[in-house]
Amino acid sequence: MAEKNAKQNAAETQPALSKHEDFVLKYKNMIIAGVVLLIAIIAGVIFYNKYKAAQQEEAATVSAPEQLLLSQAVNELGSPTAFYGEKKYEAALNGDSLGHKGFLKIAEEYSSTDAGNLANLYAGLCYAHMNKWEDAVKYLEKYDDAGDILISPAALGALGNAYAHVNQMDKAVSTLTKAAEKADNLLLSPIYYIQAGEILESQGKKAEALKLYQKVKGMQSMTQSSPYVDRIDEYIERVSE
Length: 241
Fold this sequence. Notes:
Structural class: mainly alpha
Distance between the termini: 28 Å
Number of helices: 12
Number of strands: 0
Shape: elongated
Largest sheet: none
Helix content: over 70%
Order of helices and strands: HHHHHHHHHHHH
Strand content: under 5%
């Protein structure tokens, strides 16, 4: 009995941060999958614009060097994107022996284009998949959302999670909260608010966590059921004690 009580006390005194780490790991694949889905949308737009430019010969002349550069960048982006889809993250980052460039090279050589910017985001996600979180932060920070309403909230969510993995908790909270506000939808916003709340709890900031959980509570009747949103009353009760 004494041994059982000792184990129970040890579990109860376990740092709150470990609970957050479990939470981050549970959500990692979901967040990355959401980002990838949105990237596919944006990439489709980029490739469409490239096709459209190809149909207008004037757009690919010396008089339009920026569009020509974008067209070249998009062509280069195809191979590492395919590697990424095949979960060949090293090849996606650095290219292969056949001369295909990776996201790192594309981001460097075409930094002035949308495709080069997108390569930064892909590179950050590759590093996240490889659990190289310092590098993930570096490239996710380089991505400039330029006010994009589709992909930027998910990219911010990925960055917030990366900050949490490198123990930059204040940055993680502010970035996840910003992601939730920018998403302004019932799919991503609750997830980001709950993640930020978990981190605040780990810091002993129950009042701030409560405010975020109450935001999720206000969305509960309108959003789809999920293991965490369905338990929002438990979160609220926990920080209200």
